[in-house]
Amino acid sequence: MALRLFNTLTRSVEDFAPLDPAGKQVGMYCCGPTVHDAAHIGNFRTFVFADLVRRHLEFKGFAVRHVMNITDVEDKIIKAVHAAKTSLREYTSRYEAAFFADLKTLGCRTPHETPRATEFIPDIIGLVEKLMARGLAYQAPDQSVYFSIEKYRAGGARYGQLLKLNFEEMRVGERVRNDEYAKESVADFALWKARAPEDGAVFWPSPWGEGRPGWHIECSAMSMKLLGPSFDLHVGGEDLIFPHHEDEIAQSEGAGVQPPGKRFVKHWMHGAHLLVEGKKMSKSLGNFYVLRDLTAKGFTGREIRYLLLTAHYRETWNFTMEGLQGARTSLARIDECLAKMRELAAGTQAAPDPALPAAFTEALDDDLNISGAWGEVFKWVTQMNRQFAEKALTPTQAASALAAWERVDSVLGVGTSPEAEVPAEFIALLEQRQAARKAKDFKRADAIRDELKAKGWVIEDTPKGARLKRL
Ligand SMILES: [Zn+2]
């Protein structure tokens, strides 16, 4: 079955066919983090979703080039840099490093390119110059450069491709300088923002005076530079549909750099929001989680990834602590089954049994029907357990089952080894406990042991040293 995916541009589920005439190369861009704060669990739902898209494409034999930008200059960052009295680079590098560590914890494949906006300023300026030359951008009395929606539409282009916009209320030439605005306030948006006193040292020279890029143009410039002016797939959270992605289309297609008849992006995919404990995440409600909050409660990246991968990407879905407990139980079921297969196979090698990968792929080919895919996995687990109990499996069949799981897990990415997933803070605690024992501070060593136990981990002394095991 061909891969079918929902395209926000056409609002329908379509066959996925890359632009590459050989049908092999896929250019995929995902809007990355704005590095002004630790990314929260809602952000990670989007990144795990993008990882699933990529992994499934790779599973199907496509050669994916995955680009994810780092927004390291933008309104919120500048405010934070100003408040922290530090430099832009110093401020953003901390959050950038934390973000990549979190991606790793969640088992996401690293994108092939992770461009930083501040390193693409000449490309951004070049793109604004193209829009100026085509009469679609203008410098306003405030010295900033704006995109003219009126001129763009007058040339026959459509503004409002990803969602319906009401132009009757719109006042021509009205401008919005902020990067984020509601669709009710659709207006000419900033491409280049003239330097303001509150920008501090964050500015670059340009043909229009000192300033900095707007957020939307950053993604247009970086994606087209790295994937070409027309590419296959653009992924992001649904909150980015407007204005960010709509503006990306207007700028990129307005610059007229695509080959005739080709779009900036062929296929747009958007991941839905996440609720936490039934409510919109907010710091005041106490349901605002960054990844560290969850690993500190003793959950592993693998368990969190599993839970984020249980609902269909276009469904608004409720993330709960109970769900995380359920994720632990479900993964334990898989692990237990695999352990039995491993014991029986005892190192025998065999080609994968095609049944599980075939049923699994069929589900995912249907617009990433992940619950159907998990359904196939658990049906398989039940069947393997039964056959094992009936002693109906040979070592070769067990090896073949393990190889089938490997295939499927290349998409799911939940792995099979929970021990390798001990969160860093618990490893640090274990080291402190070893140090305390060495120093004969047994009271401290015992206190650490109890603390680890309370978090769900026991210390196991092995010939290779102490290690942590789940309770
Ligand atoms: Zn973007």
List the helices and strands and how they pair.
Layout: E1 4-7, E2 12-15, E3 25-30, H1 41-59, E4 63-68, H2 75-84, H3 88-105, H4 121-133, E5 137-139, E6 145-147, H5 149-154, E7 175-176, E8 188-194, E9 211-213, H6 215-227, E10 231-237, H7 241-254, E11 265-271, E12 274-276, E13 279-280, H8 291-296, H9 301-308, E14 317-319, H10 321-345, H11 355-365, H12 370-389, H13 395-412, H14 424-438, H15 442-454, E15 457-462, E16 465-470
Parallel strand pairs: 3-4, 3-10, 7-8, 10-11, 12-14
Antiparallel strand pairs: 1-2, 5-6, 6-8, 8-9, 12-13, 15-16
Helix pairs in contact: 1-13, 4-6, 6-7, 9-10, 10-12, 10-13, 11-12, 11-13, 14-15
Zinc ion binds next to loops.
Bound ions, cofactors and other small molecules, one mention each: zinc ion
Radius of gyration using CA atoms only: 25 Å
- The first-to-last residue Cα distance is 43 Å
How many helices does DSSP assign? 15
- The parts where pLDDT drops under 50 for at least 5 residues are none
Major β-sheet profile = 5 strands, mixed
Class based on secondary structure composition and strand pairing:
alpha/beta
What is the molecular shape?
globular
**Strand runs, count:** 16
Helical content class? 40-55%
Strand content: 15-25%
Instruction: Give the overall average pLDDT.
Output: 93
Would you kindly provide a written description of the structure presented here, covering whatever features stand out?
The chain has 471 residues and is α/β, with parallel strands linked by helices. The chain is built from 15 helices and 16 strands. It has helices spanning 41-59, 75-84, 88-105, 121-133, 149-154, 215-227, 241-254, 291-296, 301-308, 321-345, 355-365, 370-389, 395-412, 424-438, 442-454, and strands at 4-7, 12-15, 25-30, 63-68, 137-139, 145-147, 175-176, 188-194, 211-213, 231-237, 265-271, 274-276, 279-280, 317-319, 457-462, 465-470. Strands 5, 6, 7, 8 and 9 form a five-stranded mixed β-sheet that branches. The chain has a four-stranded parallel β-sheet with strand order 4-3-10-11. A three-stranded mixed β-sheet has the order 13-12-14. Helix 7 (241-254) links the parallel strand 10 (231-237) and strand 11. The longest helix is centred in the C-terminal third of the chain and has 25 residues, at 321-345. The two termini are 43 Å apart. The model has no long low-confidence stretch (mean pLDDT 93). Bound molecules: zinc ion.
